[in-house]
Design a protein that fits this description.
There is one protein chain. The protein has 97 residues and is α+β, with helices and mostly antiparallel strands. Helices cover 27% and strands 28% of the residues. It has a four-stranded antiparallel beta sheet with strand order 2-3-1-4. Helix 1 packs antiparallel against helix 2. The radius of gyration is 14 Å and the shape is globular.
Amino acid sequence: MSTRRHHLITYDVADDKRRKRIFEGLKGVGDHAQYSVFFADLNPREIAELRAKLDGWVHHDEDQVLIVDLGPAHHPLDAGLEAIGKAWDPPVRCLVV
């Protein structure tokens, strides 16, 4: 069984430069869902590495990053997701060899 878990990551960052750095960093690990919201399937090592990076990127007196564990990645994310208004359309991933 996989140790990967779904995570919701959202941020509120005061400075444009820091905000862009966090956005670019999260693009590499998760799916961009909304302006400052990402979904990522991460194992314990990956989430620890991400936390360490984010800790170095944020200004602790002005910024906030929230990481919410949404459960095991082998359960479909959209099974527990409710959208009001526009439906959530997960990105299609494909492997190019």
